Amino acid sequence: MMVNLTFIREMIQRFQEDEVSRLSAELAYFFLLSLFPFLIFLLTLLAYLPIPHEDVLSVVRQYAPKEAMDLIEANVHYIMNHQNGKLLSLGIIGAVWSASNGIAAIVRALNRAYDVEESRSFIVARGMAILLTLGMMVVIVVALLLPVFGKEIGLFLSSVLGVSEAFLTLWNTLRWTVSSLILFIVFTSLYYFAPNKRMHCKDVLVGALFATIGWIVTSLAFSYYVASFASYTSMYGSLGGIIILMVWFYLSGMIIVLGGELNAIFACEREGRKRER
């Protein structure tokens, strides 16, 4: 019990000292900047694949609050109706640069959690942020497409092999589990490569697991809260969707930073040192 109280006090103290709230707001800003360039890239790319963009949006719709999703879908439909050949290249450039700023902010937050200074040059740090961004974009695309492909594979097995309804239910559960696993891989890679500190993969698993479960639970809980209790539209009018989207990004950023802080606490315990106050 004493250990648990000590751990909680450490997390609260780190939350205050490392300005987790401010860093989360910074991440929310960069997430918003990179969202629509990424959508331009993703949905223009999907035009060359036999996958309806509505199927991909249905994956996001599971977690995003309704008002935020309405805003995203409105922009998606506008993008799909006004796309041209240049959007793919412009989208990837805009998404990579905007998202790399977000990764750079995460790097600063994780360095602060581990009490290390950024000794890498600007070119190296920015290059790493861009490479992490590209890798995460690929993984996110795969995570979005896997449920879509999984649905088609399940229907194929059902028609060809005549499998039961119970199998299709199990199959649907498994393909959503794969998406969660990919999300876990994203967080593990982020916590492993981003800090300016030599890490072992096992050292970041706890924070990655926390971030994966925390992000899913927080997103679903926030969506339920907005749908059942909050009334941002009546308070902010047409800006309600943007406010909800920013709050969702803010909570997502906080989960990511807290996962890094969690890894840093365990790192201090392994190294047998206490953090300097």
From TrEMBL:
It is found in: Cell membrane. It comes from the Bacteria. Its main location: membrane. The keyword Transmembrane applies. It is a multi-pass membrane protein. InterPro entries: Virul_fac_BrkB (IPR017039). Keywords: Cell membrane, Membrane, Transmembrane, Transmembrane helix. One of its GO terms (cellular component) is plasma membrane. The chain crosses the membrane at residues 27-51, 87-110, 122-146, 176-194, 206-227, 239-268. This is Membrane protein. It comes from Anoxybacteroides tepidamans.
